[in-house]
Amino acid sequence: MRKRNHIIPLHLNKKELAHLEAQVKLSGLAREEFLRSLIMGAQLQARPCTHHADLLHKAAGLCNNANQLAKVANTYGEVSQQSVEEMTSIARAVWKEVKENW
Fold first, then answer.
1. What string of pLDDT tens digits covers the 102 residues of the chain?
2. How far apart are CA 17 and CA 7, in angstroms?
3. DSSP structural state of residue 28
4. Which SS3 state, helix, strand or coil, does residue 1 take?
5. How far apart are CA 65 and CA 61, in angstroms?
6. Half-sphere exposure of 15 toward its Cβ, with a 13 Å CA cutoff?
7. pTM for the full model?
């Protein structure tokens, strides 16, 4: 048996339908799920941009570099100032991209 067995007909004009379809496309949800989310009061946001995967890849690389730097520091008791400055620079660049684009 279906959990959702109540149907509500909705009449829209051409402009309203176009707006709804645009919002659904931005959200990345199915139309029905989009409308149910709105009814339940969810704060819907646009789906992440296409560069999102690239940003996550950069952040993962940054974390890997930080782990390697920490391993060297723990093994040998020190790391070069250049390595620390490079990690700081990369972290700032990633943070700047996140801040500007999101």
1. 678 888 889 999 999 999 999 988 888 889 999 898 888 887 776 666 667 777 777 777 777 777 787 777 778 877 777 777 777 777 778 777 777 766
2. 18
3. T
4. coil
5. 6
6. 0
7. 0.47
Q: Which two tokens stand for residue 60?
A: 């993962």
In one letter, which amino acid is 47? R
Nearest CA among 17, 30, 23 for reference residue 45: 23
Q: Exposure pattern of 88-98 as b/e (b: 16+ CB <10 Å)?
A: eebeeeeeeee
Domains of the chain, residue spans: 10-47, 52-101
Neighbours of 34 (CB within 10 A): 20
Which residue type, as a one-letter code, is found at position 40?
A: M
- Token representation of residue 59: 């952040």
**Residue found by looking up tokens 């390595």 in the block:** 83
